[in-house]
Specification:
This protein is an alpha+beta fold and 324 residues long. The protein is built from 13 helices and 6 strands. The strands form 2 sheets. It has a 4-stranded antiparallel sheet with strand order 4-3-6-5, sandwiched between helices. α1 crosses α2 and α4 packs across α6.
Length: 324
C-alpha cells in the first residue's frame, strides 16, 4: 500500500512539473530564499494527486455504488416500518469520534480533511443505515438452533476460542518459583508483570481471546487440558517455560453464537441487498446525456460515411455506361 501511494505521489509531482509556469499571477503559497511559489502551483499539484488516487482506488465507482445502496436500504427500512432515530445516528457518530482519539482528535481530523462537522455526519449516515438494515435482515431471517449447531460442528476447529494468560521464563526453576508465588497468594497478574519475559507481561500475562490453533502445539495441548480458572504447572515449549491460566473457554455453540449468526447471515444478506439494487429503478442523468451524445455522434459518422459512398457509386455506374 505504501509503495503504491509513493508511486502516485511521484507521478503527480512529475506531471505537475509540466505546469510550472501556470501560477505566475495570483496569491503566493510560499517564498523560498526570496523566490515565490504561486498558490496555483500548489493547488494544481494537489488536484492532480487527488484525481490519481481517486482513479487508483476506483473511488468514483465506489461512491456511486454506496450512494445507491444507501437509498435502497433506507427505502427498505421504511417499507418494513423500521424508523431511524437521532440516537441511531449518534451511536455511530460517537464511535467515529472515539476512533479519531476523542473530541480533540476528531476536531483535528476535520481540520486536516478540511470538512465540516455536518459533512462528516452526512458521510456517517451510511454506517447507521447499513447497520440498521443488517440488523433488520438478521432479525427477520434468524437461523434456527439446528442450523447454528450444525455450523458449529462443521467449523469447530476455527470457531473454538480461549481466553488465556501465561508467564514465560527461561528456566524450569524460575517457572516453579513463579507458580509457588501464585499458590502463596500473589495475583497471577502481579507475578507476570514481575518475572515474565513475554511481551504480554505488562498486561498481566493476558493473551486475549484467541483460537488455540494459533499457539505452539505443546502450549495449546496443556491449555486445553485446564478447567476455567485453573493454573498449570511448568510447561516447556520451544520458547521456554510457561505457567498457564485458562480464564474462559469458548468451546460451545452458545459461547460463539454471535459469530455464527454473523457468518450464517453475511452471504445471504449480501444477496438480499444486491437483489434490492438490481430491482431498483436507478437512473444517472449525466450518463444518459453522455450516451445520447455518443449515439448522436455515431449516427452522424454513419450518415457521413453513406454520403461519401454515393459519389463513388455514381462514378462506377457512369464508367460502366461509357464502356458500353
Amino acid at each position: 500500500m505504501k509503495k503504491q501511494v509513493k508511486k502516485i505521489l511521484a507521478g503527480g509531482l512529475a506531471l505537475s512539473l509540466l505546469l510550472t509556469g501556470c501560477g505566475a499571477g495570483g496569491s503566493t503559497f510560499a517564498t523560498v530564499n526570496g523566490e515565490k511559489i504561486a498558490q496555483e502551483r500548489y493547488d494544481v499539484q494537489l488536484d492532480v494527486i487527488k484525481s490519481m488516487i481517486a482513479a487508483q482506488y476506483q473511488l468514483p465507482e465506489s461512491i456511486k455504488k454506496q450512494l445507491v445502496q444507501e437509498v435502497v436500504m433506507r427505502q427498505d427500512l421504511e417499507k418494513n416500518e423500521v424508523k431511524l432515530t437521532d440516537e441511531d445516528y449518534k451511536e455511530d457518530f460517537d464511535k467515529a469520534v472515539e476512533a479519531y482519539g476523542g473530541a480533540e482528535g476528531y476536531r483535528r481530523t476535520l481540520e486536516v480533511l478540511k470538512i465540516s462537522d455536518d459533512q462528516m455526519k452526512e458521510m456517517l449516515k451510511f454506517e447507521t443505515i447499513s447497520r440498521k438494515h443488517k440488523e433488520m435482515y438478521a432479525q427477520k431471517n434468524a437461523p434456527s438452533e439446528e442450523e447454528i449447531k450444525k455450523y458449529f460442528e462443521d467449523n469447530k476447529d476455527s470457531l473454538v476460542k480461549v481466553d488465556a494468560s501465561h508467564i514465560l521464563v527461561p528456566t524450569e526453576e524460575e517457572a516453579k518459583e513463579a507458580k509457588k508465588r501464585i499458590d502463596g497468594g500473589e495475583s497471577f497478574e502481579d507475578v507476570a508483570k514481575a518475572v515474565s519475559k513475554d511481551g504480554s507481561a505488562q498486561a498481566g500475562g493476558s493473551l486475549g481471546i484467541q483460537n488455540p490453533g494459533k499457539y505452539d502445539p505443546v502450549f495449546a495441548k496443556a491449555l486445553l487440558a485446564l478447567k476455567e480458572g485453573e493454573i498449570s504447572d511448568p510447561v516447556q515449549t520451544q520458547f521456554g517455560y510457561h505457567i498457564i491460566r485458562l480464564n474462559k473457554n469458548y468451546n460451545t455453540a452458545d459461547s460463539v453464537k454471535d459469530e455464527i449468526l454473523t457468518a450464517l447471515t453475511a452471504d445471504a444478506y449480501q444477496e438480499y441487498l444486491q437483489k434490492l439494487v438490481d430491482e431498483a429503478k436507478v437512473e444517472f442523468p449525466g450518463e444518459k446525456k453522455e450516451e445520447e451524445s455518443s449515439q448522436a455522434s455515431d449516427q452522424s459518422e454513419a450518415e457521413s460515411g453513406e454520403s461519401k459512398e454515393e459519389p463513388g457509386q455514381e462514378s462506377q455506374s457512369s464508367s460502366a455506361e461509357e464502356s458500353k
